[in-house]
Queue: 2 jobs
Job 1
Amino acid sequence: MRIVHVDQIVETVAKLCWEACYYLPEDVLAGFRRAEKTEASPIGKTILQQLLENADEAKVNHMPYCHDTGMAVVFVEVGQDVHITGGNFLDSIQEGVRTGYREGYLRKSVVGDPLIRVNTGDNTPAVVHTEIVPGDQIKFTVLPKGGGSENMSAMKFLLPGEGMQGVKNFVLQTIKEAGGKACPPVVVGVGIGGSFDKVTSLAKHAVLREIGVHHHEPHIAQLEKELLEEINNTGIGPQGLGGTSTALWVPIETYACHITALPVAVNIQCHAARKKSAVL
Amino acid sequence: MAEYRLKTPLTNEDIQKLQIGDQVLLTGTIYMARDAAHKRMVDLLEANQPLPVDLRNEIIFYAGPCPPKPGQIIGPVAPTTAFRMDPYAPAMYEYGVKGTIGKGPRRDMIKQACKQFGAISFAAIGGLSTILSRRVTAVEVVAYEDLGPEAIRRLEVEDFPLLVAYDAHGQDLYTQEIAKYENFNKNANKEVGI
């Protein structure tokens, strides 16, 4: 058994919050570069060049790439042989987010009650997903999720017989409705299967996958390729101002499901496709 | 698609000459306001009450910045999604706002409102926050301080880069440009016999 003090958790989560917001991951930058080379629209090409320039300025000056530093979504994989001391585990994650957003000069974008809508002033609470896994380590992944693209996400129960084509139609319809509002070029996280709650979680987890990596199942990898091509044929383009680079990647995650059901969820991630992990 | 360097306040002549796709470098005063501030302002307009700031002939930037680091004028900032302000925008244009700056396509009511009231809906690049923050030379909270990042701020900007997305002639840049690239690669492949 390994002992981890909550102070280490606070420090780790805090650092992940601002690092994620300042430094866009290399797979996303590579995606921008590929898109910039192939983009057919002059407006779209200029936008992609400016996004690369913006990422560079953010990195050099240690500033947020995008002002919408999101609601923090924190994924935690806790090894079953870890013992946490010094306080409450979940409180330490919230304290980490509070510290990270304050010390990183990140925007506080959370209201405490969805209807009364008063800003909590410290960007808490974060959304925390905890999973117990084998081992004696804890892995943290912070996904600062911007509102513009999250708002355009969607979920539907298809009839089982609608199959592959039904899934494609729903994903395409969701992307067309989102258009420029989701801040393309986007990463389109898709969940297929599971239950009402599981399918949206799959779509969210899909967004974390590195751009350029396909699903291990050949039929899902094929669906990813076809959807990427079809999404880039919608004409939406960077910022919805027309073009051939609407999506950088379409990662799909699947799970078993009930005989009656074919749930599908689409979680759209804007071009500020930030994610950062650390292991304690 | 012309390029202009314009100063605020925009004149009616400025507004009439602008066409969708024109690039504008804007210098002068603009006002930052987004969801929560718009809800309050439109409630005031409906009650025939004055707004906390006179926004007639002004430009509203739909945005909320990050806090500034020590020594910075403003933290990173770029436009938020414009369509969320669609329910409020026609009333604001009717009141006398001459332009709005946001990102993404808007509902047809905005196209009609821009034409009817002689206003422009500009686009700036969403998420271009580090670069755009450098075009801001001064900032001051002027109303609704309790809203934090959603407070109304007065900004001085220099050569702030904009695109005309909806002009005062009823044209829409998003629809026009997307139509050009729909099935672009599919068609290109057909032409070369792939």
Job 2
Amino acid sequence: MSLLEIKNLHANIHGNEILKGVDLTINAGEVHSIMGPNGSGKSTLAQVLARRETYTVTQGQVLLNGKDLLAMKPEEAACEGLFMAFQYPVEIPGISNAYFLRAALNAIRKYRGQEELDAMDFLPLLKEKMRLLEMDDRFLNRPVNEGFSGGEKKRNEIVQMAVLEPRMAILDETDSGLDIDALKIVAKGVNTMRGADRAILVVTHYQRLLDYIIPDYVHVLVDGRIVKSGGKELAFELEEKGYGWTEPASAAAR
Amino acid sequence: MATAATERLRNYLEAFHRLGIDAASQPAWLRALRDRGFARFCEAGFPTTKNEDWRFTNVNAIAQTPFQLARDARQLGAIYGDTLDACRIPGAACQLVFLNGRFAAELSELGSLPEGVRVESLAQGIAHDGKSLESHLGHYLNIERDAFAALNTAFIEDGAYVYLPRRTVLEAPIYFLFISIPTQHPEMTNPRNLIVAEDATEASIVEDYVSLGSGISFSNVVTELVAGENAVISHYLLEREDRQAFNVSTLRTQQGRSANVSSHSVLLGGGLVRNNVHPVLAGEGGECLINGLFIGNGSQHMDNYMLVEHASPHCSSRQFYNGILDGHSHGVFHGRIIVHKDAQKTDAKQTNRNLLLSDDAQIDTKPQLEIYADDVKCTHGATIGQVEENALFYLRSRGIDEASARSLLLLAFANECLDRMKCLPVREYLQDLVQGWLPGISTPAGDTTADNLEIARRWEEVG
């Protein structure tokens, strides 16, 4: 069974249709990348999958591990194994990183009928994941994302992913604004998460990240539709020729 | 009208005479101080909303209630022993318990304090050390501008007294627990506290106001805090009385050269609460932090009136107040900063942030800067908003359900204030307390609403 199955997905925000019929199937063990120009609907797709309520789905179906994702609340989707690394992680002053993540992990464990972890069991786990992303221990007690640099915020997203161990992870432009060192650290973190039970969807504007997280499949999203799909070589082609190259296909699809 | 007012004052007059007889052993200077307080109170009467300092708070419910002086309830202490233990803050150097405003020795734990340190009841202090008290008590509080301060002064009888000799450093906090035990007849207490911290002292002092049982009571509190040169003193006020209680608290601090004083307030309980914080930065290089959190629900009214006086150069003051208001509650933040003519290089900052959780909750926030020096830096800012949707989605996307995510964000907002508290046992106690308090708020459950109505109804009767 596919981990994620998107069929003819249409979605709008405030009446503007952004997704105009997206079809995509992702199986466990695969890494997919969605690329596309600004405004093509990449982030909308990620947000709709994470169940952001500001978007309205007008048509289509999405199955997460065989269950109706579009009927789930954001927290239910998370508990069912979906994770989205935010393009713009939110700052939450007053709550420490460690407290927040333990609350999240325990919410998910509780949903799955597993025992909750106390602070003593949780801290070593968190520290291990933070080391993987080369984040200092002082980030444990700092308020969530507050005063973090852009790169620190993105690494913190991957720390969260590593702790929560989702089955379906979506990275929404995690590479934007990262320097090459931070990019490598993030990619290393993501790559250690690759596995037969898990699928990863990398949403990106640039091919650069795909040098480090090598996808099995690349899809090109233009104007709310996937207009081209292929292997990793498609990313290089896009890098060379630009998105303009895909447009005739887009026109043909209409 | 005049007759009604006279009628109301008669209560206080009778009480004043009774106290004169009961406390006949008070020294002449104290009786004179009390006379001045009573005269001023009679002259001024309770403030009305026409008074700019009271614009957002109507104290009619206090003015029209015929309060008696609270009876001596110390014999009840033993009965409540177990209940009391639940509210004590652990880890204190000493705990003084006051029942209906009077020191209850048998419920208190004096601990062992360093040589020369005095932590005792004000009445004991007056008996043992009248001379030093005379030189401080009533010397800082301005009874001219505040009728409640005058009323408290008129009824000085007991309270807490702290004396810290030069270079005393206390790591564990000094803890005062003030308990009101309401009866069918509305009663008032006028706790009067004096804290004298000599040069280079360090200490944390907690005042905690609670009710045992439900009913109308009025705590009219004044604390004078004198901090000598280089003293580092933290003062904590915790208000968690019954929802029918009235509480007016005034903290007046006098800071010497390079003294560093923090005032932390956490208002959770009480029906009508007025929290006055009035530091005077009287010596060069002083610093003060005024930090507060108020959480209102039902028909609670919580008014925070800050008056920061910069009277010397090179002083800095920081005000941070966060409010969380639900139900029909009404919050007020009035932050007044006065920079006197000679207070050059003043650095004053004021921030008030508020979350409104219901359509009927209300906040009035008002900065008021009066600057008579020309080389100063003063900033102020206020925000009013709801729980941020972005943050809510972020938490939910990590698996935390909506209700828990909301509570977590409220806790985060509260923690901004609690995190500024340096005294660890107090901070941890307050964090637990606030965390337990928050779920009662922002839940639109039927029970809470019924409770609110019940309280609102009782309020009608009071008014």
